[in-house]
Automatic annotation (TrEMBL):
Organism: Breznakia pachnodae
Protein name: HEAT repeat domain-containing protein
Length: 126
């Protein structure tokens, strides 16, 4: 599969709603990244990424973790009590893209000054 770089586009709330209701896998895969980068309401971005973290497709779930990392980087806000269990769950249910979840957790720890998932990641990397 050839990788093609496309810059992320800003999404309106209506576009977000349409993507969430669609089965457009390309749009669902990039949605959490776009929200993390551009959505001014950190809570909306976080909650949408949390919803996408439960998606059946592993690529969407892994990018939901990365979207949360983007929210941490661009907004400096996340609700640890909600985000932590989801990220730890993603460590266990993303096999092919587990590396992306680990990168996202490490980024979130850096930007939020948290220490989540350290033991779980050490077990995985052994």
């Amino acid at each position: 599969m050839e990788r093609i770089y496309k810059p992320l586009s800003e999404k309106t709330r209506e576009e977000v709603k349409e993507i969430l209701e669609s089965n457009d896998m390309d749009a669902l895969i990039t949605l959490p990244l776009s929200l993390g980068e551009y959505e001014p309401d950190w809570k909306f971005a976080q909650d949408t990424c949390m919803k996408l973290a439960q998606h059946e497709d592993e690529r969407v779930r892994a990018n939901a973790a990365l979207g949360l990392a983007y929210v941490a980087r661009t907004k400096g806000k996340l609700e640890k009590n909600l985000v932590k269990p989801v990220l730890l769950q993603l460590l266990n249910n993303c096999e092919e893209y587990q590396w992306r979840v680990i990168d996202a957790i490490n980024d979130i720890n850096l930007y939020m000054n948290w220490r989540i998932g350290k033991k779980a990641i050490k077990r995985i990397e052994k």
